[in-house]
Automatic annotation (TrEMBL):
InterPro entries reported for this sequence: HPT_dom_sf, Sig_transdc_His_kin_Hpt_dom
Name of this chain's protein: Hpt domain-containing protein
Cleavable signal peptide: none
Matches recorded under Pfam families: Hpt
Annotated transmembrane regions: none
Domain of life: Bacteria
SUPFAM superfamilies to which the protein is assigned, alphabetical: Histidine-containing phosphotransfer domain, HPT domain
Organism taxonomic ancestry: Bacteria, Bacillati, Bacillota, Clostridia, Eubacteriales
Amino acid sequence: MGADYAEVLERLRDERLIRRYVLRFPDDPSYDALCRAMSGGRVEEAFLAAHTLKGITQSLGFGGLCTSASALTEALRNGARAEADRLLQSVTADYRRIVDSILRFQGEDGVGGTAEDIQAARNSGMDNTSQSRWT
């Protein structure tokens, strides 16, 4: 996933807490809010969502996604819409890679779920159906 576990453990100091936060990451609304704001041309909203996503991914040690979210945050801060649209593609690729890794881990760990399950639930407006799996 591109995470530096030792750094995350030093920051959060509790393996159970790290596991809990990582398993809940697919349910975090920041990425979806970012995509909605970008598609609606709401730059300030997109900036806030990208900034939030950057902070979460930095805390969890998701280096690649943190880097792409940071670049997107700066493009939005500077009003570089064309660059932001391009960078959103990088954020999306990094986000999917991390979420897919988490979901594979959950499947191996007996929790279950696939990226398609999560996306189908989100698309149908049933975000709360997946939340019980991560708690």
